[in-house]
Design brief:
450 residues; 10-stranded mixed beta sheet; globular
Length: 450
């Protein structure tokens, strides 16, 4: 049973977070935006955006739900800094960077739509759709759970790459947490960030970077030391060849660790220090090869990781090869986090008429995930007749049981005022069709990493 003092502290945290969002993050249409946020948190599966206006927590008429998104305004910079500072200030903190698409294949009036990859179980393991790609930097609350909280969500424009946007997110995140000297922040990135262009942009920050590498990469080892007797010509900048698919080029690892893991079975980690790409001699990084489940007849393929060390390691924090591998292993909750916001919170269900409205709705769904997390210690599991009780509540189960908590805390939003009926479309004013925009196909120059 939760202690009364702990319960009161958790309620105060939830109330303080809601008041801060209302006072600082919502700049225009804040009352309607906040009612929409409460309706989203307390509603179960969102099958229609307009149906959120039928929630008892949305105290306005249904047109206000669209006006809140289309005419509202959020302070995204303040929001990113505030959420970054709400993560733990001590210990090892794991964050994940990845992208997710918002498909809008038939929205011809939307500007800057692109061809984006959409993960699928169809043929070839994926498909291509038309829509908007979003880059997400999220805090992994617990390993092997469903809790992944967005810190920085940004739409990737057609004149940007996912690597450029992701690097900007990590740079802003590191700056927001530069005062937390006792926290060791590590960002685990997907395979598309495993190149020297991205790593060059995040080199020398206070957070470490671990990213997956393709299994067919060819790197270079550090050059040998210059001879004592100087010779003519430029000194060597590349050492021996290091090809992932050619074991005879690896040489002796700088570190080898083996142990029995209760989850993965037998684990073997090999580490080579100070490797670099042919075009990235200024960005040396360590490479880790992970082999797991060696007791199986057909073990999974090797996992190759690139490790870029942080600027400094807090005193008392241990940072070794095992920590690097476990950090990447802990990035998985970002996948169920995407799934929850899409399938339950209805992130990609609305069909807004501007990309800016989609950005605002994306940030609203991110705030809803944070409110559910802050309410997790307060709710009591209320399973449906066909559900089993849970000890570690998932976001969906917290949302299912949150209404009694919301009945005890006030809303900072002001109640609505009757405005009368709108005049409607002026008589005699002509209507014009909205302009149509072609789908933007990125050129190799535009897709080039910074």
């Amino acid at each position: 049973m939760t202690e009364p003092n702990a319960t009161k502290e958790n309620i105060n945290k939830l109330i303080e977070f809601r008041q801060a969002i209302y006072a600082h993050a919502m700049l225009a249409r804040r009352d309607a935006l906040f009612d929409l946020l409460d309706a989203l948190v307390t509603t179960g599966h969102v099958s229609s955006f307009a149906k959120l206006s039928q929630s008892s927590y949305f105290r306005r008429k249904w047109p206000s739900i669209y006006a809140a998104i289309e005419d509202g305004r959020l302070d995204s910079d303040w929001l990113r800094q505030d959420l970054a500072q709400r993560t733990p200030q001590t210990g090892t903190c794991v964050f994940a960077l990845d992208g997710s698409p918002w498909p809008r294949p038939r929205a011809r009036t939307l500007e800057d739509r692109q061809f984006v990859y959409q993960a699928s179980s169809d043929v070839n393991g994926g498909t291509v759709t038309i829509g908007y790609p979003y880059s997400m930097l999220e805090w992994i609350v617990e390993a092997h759970s469903s809790w992944s909280l967005p810190i920085d969500v940004r739409r990737v424009a057609s004149n940007q790459t996912a690597q450029e946007v992701g690097a900007a997110q990590i740079q802003a995140f590191a700056k927001a947490r530069e005062a937390f000297l006792e926290a060791l922040d590590i960002v685990a990135c997907d395979g598309k960030y495993g190149n020297c262009g991205f790593l060059r942009s995040v080199k020398g920050l206070r957070c470490g970077i671990v990213t997956r590498l393709r299994c067919d990469r060819v790197l270079r080892q550090a050059p040998p030391p210059p001879p004592t007797i100087r010779k003519r010509g430029r000194p060597k900048v590349h050492g021996e060849r290091f090809a992932f698919k050619e074991p005879d080029t690896w040489g002796t690892p700088d570190e080898v660790i083996e142990w029995e893991d209760p989850r993965w079975g037998k684990v073997c980690l090999e580490r080579w220090n100070q490797l670099h790409e042919t075009k990235g001699t200024d960005v040396p990084y360590d490479v880790v090869r992970a082999r797991v489940h060696l007791e199986r007849e057909h073990p999974p393929a090797d996992l190759w990781l690139a490790w870029l060390a942080p600027q400094s390691v807090p005193a008392g924090q241990e940072l070794n090869t095992e920590v690097i591998w476990r950090t990447y292993d802990q990035r998985w909750p970002i996948e169920p986090g995407f799934h929850f916001r899409k399938e339950t919170l209805g992130w990609t269900i609305p069909m807004f008429q501007s990309k800016e409205a989609g950005d605002r709705w994306t940030e609203i769904t991110a705030l809803a995930a944070w409110i559910l997390y802050l309410a997790r210690p307060l709710v009591e599991d209320a399973p449906l007749p066909w559900q089993r009780p849970q000890q570690r509540l998932t976001p969906q189960r917290v949302q299912q049981s949150i209404c009694p908590i919301f009945a005890q805390i006030p809303s900072p939003a002001r109640p609505p005022k009757p405005r009368g009926k709108a005049e409607g479309w002026p008589k005699g004013k002509s209507r014009t069709h909205k302009p149509r925009f072609p789908v933007v196909k990125k050129t190799p120059v535009a897709a080039k990493t910074a």
